[in-house]
Amino acid sequence: MRGSVANLVRSFLSKLDLNDVADAIKEAEKRTSGEIRVAIRQKRSKKEKALSVEQLARHEFAHLGMMKTRERTGILIFILLESREFFILADQHINDKVAPRSWNSVAEAMAAQFVKMDFRQGLLDAVRSVGDHLATHFPAKPGDKNELSNKVDVS
Known about the structure:
The protein is an alpha/beta fold.
């Protein structure tokens, strides 16, 4: 984490909190062939000022190489701190099997925790819930391997 980014992120989540989220991703992915990532951005760049949080999430999804998973089963929880917005973005194969309202319920539960300033619990609950959905539709397979980092991406 860079200095100013680290300071802003630490006002919401400690280093231990970020490690706990990464551990929750690792645990959730043991039950599914899906891949979960969490990305936290401090703010939009000057070039991105006109972009919505969904558009930023789509850019981040591509930047993190999430569409390169073997079965197109990546899902991103993207948080934009400056505007206190977030977006949950699933790859095409997930969208073919999981109703979009499923992600709405995850987002609503996460938002309820964020309102209480419990960002750690909101993220942990969201990761576990996403993992539950993925395990139902994309259970772990023999020989399945972790295709993407579990570390929270902070920029």
